[in-house]
Structure formats: C-alpha cells, structure tokens
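Researcher: We plan to redesign the surface later, but first we want a full-length starting point. Tokens attached.
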C-alpha cells in the first residue's frame, strides 16, 4: 500500500474535528459523543485522506 499526503481540505477537516474533541475535553463543552470517539473520527478522516489518492 502506497500512502500519499492528504489534501489541505482533508487535513483541515480532521483538524477542526480534533479541536472540537479537545474543546469538549478541556473546555467542558457537552457533546453527544465521548471525546475519545470525536478524536477517533478525526484520526480516521486523516488516515483515509492518506490512504486514498485524490481525496
């Protein structure tokens, strides 16, 4: 499997999701999901961006 760098938009989307997860943890913002799950989604988006060329 050949990995490629994620596009800027995929990186920014995963960064925003990760920031939301961190705000939920440290700023006390309540969310319907656990903070771990939000951070997991951010990681999955970033990983998918690295694994799929052209996304």
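Model: Full-length starting sequence:
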């Amino acid at each position: 499997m050949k990995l490629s760098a994620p596009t800027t938009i995929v990186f920014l989307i995963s960064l925003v999701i990760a920031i939301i997860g961190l705000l939920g943890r440290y700023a006390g913002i309540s969310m319907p999901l656990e903070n771990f799950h939000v951070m997991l989604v951010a990681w999955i988006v970033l990983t998918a961006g690295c694994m799929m060329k052209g996304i």
